[in-house]
Amino acid sequence: MIPYFDNMSDEKLIRQFKWACIAEGITCILLYLIAMPLKYQFDNVLLMPPVGALHGIAFIWYMGMLYYVRKPLKWDDEDLVIAGIAGFFPFLTFWVEKKLINTDSTNSVK
Q: Which of 44, 22, 21, 20 is nearest to 34 (CA)?
């Protein structure tokens, strides 16, 4: 679909996906624990636009990479759905990334 990812080795795709997991989780932390409390408790919206935009970019990067890492990680439909749903819950992308590092012989995120 995207020539940039189509020409990547499996190892590089997986490494990029791990970075996407980490980036999505860190931006989620920044958004929920720093930017939102500043906005709602102190009426300071200074950090909301940049942190919100970064989190949005990281989320799209994470969700987009799911399609490309499915084959190298030998994920079945269930694994793909679990990893996709994890993107919608705060901090679960860290769990997905941890499971990728500690994969078993079937390369499953379960």
A: 44
Q: How far, in Å, CA of 37 to CA of 87, rounded?
A: 22
For residue 102, give the 3-state DSSP assignment: coil
Q: Where in the chain are the domains?
A: 10-100
Total Cβ atoms within 10 A of residue 85: 11
* pTM attached to this predicted model: 0.84
d(CA 86, CA 20): 13
Rg of the Cα trace of the chain?
A: 15
pLDDT at residue 74, as a whole number: 87
